[in-house]
Amino acid sequence: MASEESHMAVTCTAPVNIAVIKYWGKRDEELILPINSSLSVTLHQDQLKTTTTAVISKAFTEDRIWLNGQEEDIGQPRIQACLREIRRLARKRRSGDEKDPLPLSPSYKVHIASVNNFPTAAGLASSAAGYACLAYALAQVYGVESDLSEVARRGSGSACRSLYGGFVEWQMGERTDGKDSIARQVAPESHWPELRVLILVVSAEKKLTGSTVGMQTSVETSALLKFRAEVVVPARMADMIRCVKENNFQGFGQLTMKDSNQFHATCLDTFPPISYLNDTSRRIIHLVHRFNAHYGQTKVAYTFDAGPNAVIFTLDDTVAEFVAAVKHSFPPESNGDKFVKGLPVRPASLSDELKAALGMNPIPGSIKYIIATQVGPGPQILDHPDAHLLGPDGLPKSVA
Questions:
Q1: How many beta carbons lie within 10 A of that of residue 268, not counting itself?
Q2: Can you give the pTM of this predicted structure?
Q3: Distance CA 128, CA 120 (A)
Q4: pLDDT digit string (tens) for 294-341?
Q5: Bridge partners (DSSP) listed for residue 199
Q6: Could you tell me how far CA 299 lies from the centroid of its own chain?
Q7: Per-residue pLDDT reduced to its tens digit, 46-88
Q8: Which of 115, 285, 338, 369 is least buried, going by the fewest C-beta atoms within 10 A?
Q9: How far apart are CA 88 and CA 75, in angstroms?
Q10: Residue 28 and residue 37: Cα distance in Å, rounded?
């Protein structure tokens, strides 16, 4: 961190999280309060992360923000909601803390730059990592030390879950002001070291129906969603937390798939219906079930968010064979050597019995690539000045 009397810069990274018990639907649009609790797995930042630099300075005349190198409108309501909440908390801390006066005023303008190392708006939870990182960086630079669930949540609901590593519960809360709608860690990233995550990137294009609009329509029109939130999810949350704590992959995997299927069923039950899965997504579902049926147990599990990409959970001893099964069913078109990114995956061959059990005609090129990763920690501060995305003048550093 660099700090003088009139200028301060902080750079942080934050992770992507993948919900295994899904959040879909809000009871309050403005405060972003969910109609049900949810549970997620935080992915490792070595493979997927947002990096954000926040600089506040007496010299700045206005707030500004750059995302992936492009200046964006800082007036976007969700960005403004995060900024307002952080400045409110900063003023509150300042007024109540005479012993430790903060060096910089909450009224100083801020410049923010943020980059993702993965495709944005492709159903890879980029907004969760982005707003968690924004909340964390702003809290550091304005000297805010309280729970940041509310700040991150005001940007993107699922962002509050990216404030922690490991396995994270977002408690829906009961209060109308949302003060009890917060994230908490159920188990740390070190709890289940054998767990692996494979992201099968089907399409990196922007989705047809954004999550915000989709949720609103579902809440208004889906009877199944109401039943899901009130009856199904509370029991599943308790079961899922137990499976995580017991490292029970059979239970974890089955619940993950059932909850994904039900989430997409509520999307189809929405009127007009929403379909985030495409033909390749459905073929991946068949592949997983046939792979598991061959072994007579749940060795791999899928989940899909609001997009066609599959997130696969498995244990480290199954990764190589399942990746081979994916390559067999969806042969890479041209990038065979770069088809698997992230953690190294050793080559494996499939038995003739397993090939017969999969029984699928190969469809080349329908999976673009795979990202292999694992469970990871929450937001990190990067202390090295070279890590800053903004220069001392508060403008993006030119990329050499």
A1: 14
A2: 0.94
A3: 11
A4: 999 999 999 999 989 999 999 999 999 999 999 999 999 876 678 999
A5: 311, 371
A6: 23
A7: 999 999 999 999 999 999 999 999 999 999 999 999 999 999 9
A8: 338
A9: 17
A10: 14
